[in-house]
Amino acid sequence: MSDIYALEREKDEEYVSEMLEKGIFNTIRNQEGIHFLEDRHGKYVNAENGYRIVKNTHGYSINQIYTFGNSICLGSYTDDDHTIQSALQNKLNTYYNNIPPYAVINAGNGGHPNYVKMWKSIKYHAPKGGDVIVLMTWFSELF
Burial level of 2, CB count in 10 A (0-12/13-18/19+)? Predict the structure, then answer.
């Protein structure tokens, strides 16, 4: 099946295998009722320190934009370059001439919206003044 999917999407079988067969959900661990990702270093999907990698973040950002939510937020079955968070970080980099005051954090938990899990995750991260919180639920999905 993966070879057929790869041909239709002009992707190689390695891409399809990493997206569909290995998936990001195979590496979830539960800590204090919050899901974190195990470190993962693939060609298309990566996670470090419990979080999905957001492309093109800068270590000198003053504040964070935390995104909490479901599988759309996590970027399930999406490569690192095409998550919502990576797209947002790229827009911020362009707008602020690659010196953005914000670094986007993908704190998505996957699965269906679980508001208790999101609340625990927000409390765990303890955003500070100037940080932004984005909650993504089924109602925020675009069709």
Answer: middle
What are the two backbone dihedrals, phi and then psi, of residue 121, each rounded to the nearest 5 degrees? -65, -40
Nearest to 40 by CA among 57, 21, 27: 27
Q: What is the pTM of this model?
A: 0.82
Residues 6+ apart with CB under 8 A from 67: 73, 84, 85, 104, 105, 106, 107, 108, 134, 136
In the numeric block, which tokens belong to residue 84?
A: 């919502």
pLDDT in tens, 69-124: 888 888 888 889 999 999 999 999 999 998 889 999 999 877 666 788 888 889 99
Specify the pairing of strand 132-136 against strand 63-69. Answer: parallel
